[in-house]
Amino acid sequence: MSLSFKYLLEKTMLPVVEGHVEQSQWVNEDLLPTPPEKQSQFDISINFTNWTLGSSMIGIGLSWWQSIVVIFVSQLICSIAMAFNSRAESVYHIGYPCVVYSIFGIWGNYHFVVARAVMAVICAEYMYNILRAIFGHHFTDISNRLPTSAGITSLLILAFFLCWLVQLPFCHFRPYQLRKFFWFKSIVSLLSMFGLIRSLSTSTSRSSSATAWLILAGINSGIGNLANLIINQPDYSRWSNTPNASVWTQLVVTPISVTLSASFGIIATTADSMNLILDHYWSSRARFAVFLYTFAWLAQIYIIEFLDRAVFPLEILVSATKFQAFLSGYALMVAVAIMLCDHFLLTKGTVALAAYIFGIVVPFPGFYGVLGASVYTAASHIMDIAWVTSFVTSFIVYFAICWIWPTQNMKFVRERVCH
């Protein structure tokens, strides 16, 4: 082993946890309960990070007012799920990996740790506009080496790589170390909404049945937009200073702030609109305004996704429909229902795999269909309510299996309650 590799290995290894004889992948500072001196998060929150959600709803065919109503309903459902999923971790101060350990076992948790990292999607668009605003035609004249069928260009690949490169240092920070920056990004992203306003209106004609299913699909996509935040609640709420600090924040703030943010996104500019502005108004003032706007949003995206890893699905940005389908499909993979059922009804919780598979299998044909395959209409409609279908199925199956065949954890809890 070379000296340089040994040096790199020593620098990347986690320090030994005090009080533990052995250092292993199962024991480090991040996996242990949060110590009292670091339980400093209280119940004040603001979230303006769903700017493009509203314009995505417009893109799938909803009117502006339908989009706002759909977003509010979807975020209300999300806020309830987040509030429940943050309760256990606010009490026990443990992170997401530990919660999954207790349900899916030591090795079974790896699937979910990887699944929640597949969400770095938007930042490449903003990086593209920053590079274009700075370098102009010197950047856009770079030839595209990819075919049209790839659904992405060489320039976007370059922008995504640069996003990934800048994002790497943030993996070394913990949430409590970035508390002030969370406030900073919320304020900056809110102010950036008021620059470059434009109007947008749509008028479409369709049957009431088609509209109803489109609204349900929009609600499902809105939930999928926050699916990653729902499942990641343990990593945020573990820092709470009281058991209820994260509960009321999620219930009250999330529906209002996300709906406002997405509404501004409908009437104002988004990442794609920045390209149109640069196409028609190539002045130093316009370029500087685009740079400030996109830089503000790129900065807050880095902080929100600092725990993610860059995995880029090439096809999901081709259209609003495919992007919304991806968000809806991602929500199937995160097993929120099993986590809630385990904590609130069973062990307060390793039969989880069967329930997890049931929750995915039911709506998955519809997800396969929206990505291009030919499926029955019924499968497509099930996909329109995929999150609710997956949640209810997983919850019921997990509860039924554990009630009939109690796990060791359940037996232990019941014995303690009885005695």
UniProtKB/TrEMBL annotation:
Annotated localization: Membrane
GO MF annotations, alphabetized: nucleobase transmembrane transporter activity
Alphabetized UniProt keyword annotations: Membrane, Transmembrane, Transmembrane helix
GO cellular component, one term: plasma membrane
Transmembrane segments: 64-84, 91-107, 113-131, 152-170, 182-200, 212-231, 251-274, 286-303, 323-341, 353-379, 385-406
Entry membrane topology: Multi-pass membrane protein
Family: Belongs to the purine-cytosine permease (2.A.39) family.
Name of this protein: Permease for cytosine/purines, uracil, thiamine, allantoin-domain-containing protein
Source species: Aspergillus bertholletiae
Organism phylogeny: Eukaryota, Fungi, Dikarya, Ascomycota, Pezizomycotina
